[in-house]
């Protein structure tokens, strides 16, 4: 008798999606946008703190 695999959890499905995205053109474009936004925020925060000194 064949044993059926258990259905994947939400976390396992999320991991599958992340693993598929690595190296994909859409993911790379989105990753670059995220990095630019984080860098802008970090720079702005630094400048505000420096001005307060």
Query: How far apart are the termini?
Result: 73 Å
- Low-pLDDT stretches are none
| Average of the residue pLDDT scores | 88
Count all strands and give the number: 0
Radius of gyration: 20 Å
Helical content class: over 70%
Shape: elongated
Secondary-structure class:
mainly alpha
Along the chain, the helix and strand elements come as HH
Largest sheet: number of strands, sense, barrel closure: none
Give the topology, please:
Elements: H1 10-21, H2 25-52
What's a concise summary of this model?
The protein has 53 residues and is mostly helical. 75% of the residues lie in helices and 0% in strands.
Structure description:
The chain is an all-alpha fold and 53 residues long. 75% of the residues lie in helices and 0% in strands. It has helices spanning 10-21, 25-52. The chain starts with 9 loop residues before the first helix and ends with a helix. The model has no long low-confidence stretch (mean pLDDT 88).
